[in-house]
Write a structure and sequence with these properties.
This protein is mainly beta. The protein is built from three helices and 15 strands. It has a 15-stranded antiparallel β-sheet that branches.
């Protein structure tokens, strides 16, 4: 497939979108999102242009977008809780509904750790209810020290997960060219949460949440949504939507992606042949 869209336009458009968003009045949480749990005025603290999700012994918290979407660039600015956070999971993700079962899902999951140890960023993709597609990273910065950008570009060509403009995961849509290949195409909703993952998140569940260190607080910003609402009539695959023009990474992004995988990735399901009895998922041969 050919395209007249110059590869460097991806960087230019992403930068332009950031500049425009910085110049425009910040979108408040209530415009596009609603609380799901922890909506007691404490565990989900809505400050308008920032939401704090707080976890203690009594509850965690979560929110979701009001609408479902069929394509877009999904962008959230996040700052994680600092210090001892073993067992604490902060998540930003897309998911079909119902959220569990035969669903598709695209996850950023930040897995807390003990003092002095780095937080792990785990990404995962569920297709038709099947996950087990984890890729785990130690980031090149402390995600608890400041707010950083986390993005999911999802269109009919590819799914790209980015951290501060750097792609860390790519899933190409080869469903029409590789029999049996899977790619998320169903409408998805934006969700975010903080919750107790003591059973698995830190050292495979050996280190639990220390409630004496609670509360744990994650901050979320940027609540405008650059995406196509899945209303049933919206052409979410239209080439007129700017995020649908991105069919591939730019050369610079490909180099950055290769660097991240070689230096910062600590686990890749596509390398874990024994886990799949030496029958790796089909996408491992293409991405």
């Amino acid at each position: 497939m050919t395209s007249s869209f110059h590869p460097w336009s991806l960087v230019l458009v992403l930068l332009l979108s950031i500049v425009l968003s910085l110049g425009a009045p910040a979108t408040v949480f209530d415009e596009n999102f609603v609380p799901v749990w922890g909506a007691d005025g404490y565990h989900l603290a809505n400050q308008g242009t920032q939401v704090s999700l707080i976890m203690d012994r009594n509850s965690g918290a979560g929110f979701r977008s009001k609408m479902m979407y069929g394509s877009g660039l999904f962008h959230m600015r996040i700052k994680l809780p600092a210090g001892y956070t073993a067992g604490v999971v902060t998540a930003f993700y897309l998911t079909t509904e119902p959220e569990y079962g035969d669903h598709d899902e695209v996850d950023f999951e930040f897995l807390g750790n003990v003092d002095g140890k780095p937080v792990a960023l785990q990404t995962n993709i569920f297709l038709n209810g099947q996950g087990y597609r984890e890729q785990k990273f130690y980031l090149w910065f402390d995600p608890a020290a400041a707010v950083h950008d986390y993005k999911i570009l999802w269109n009919q060509h590819q799914l790209v997960m980015l951290v501060d403009e750097t792609p860390i995961r790519v899933l190409k849509n080869l469903a029409g060219r590789a029999p049996g290949y899977q790619f998320p195409t169903r409408p998805m909703r934006i969700r975010a949460s903080i919750w107790d993952g003591s059973s698995w998140a830190t050292d495979n569940g050996k280190i639990k949440v220390d409630w004496n260190r609670a509360p744990f607080t994650s901050a979320f910003q940027r609540f405008n949504v650059d995406a196509c609402p899945a209303t049933g009539s919206a052409p979410c695959g239209s080439p007129n939507l700017w995020w649908n023009k991105f069919q591939d990474l730019t050369p610079a992004q490909k180099a950055a992606y290769k660097n991240v995988k070689s230096k910062y990735m600590t686990y890749n399901y596509c390398d874990d042949k024994a886990r799949f009895n030496y029958h790796l998922p089909l996408e491992c041969s293409y991405n």
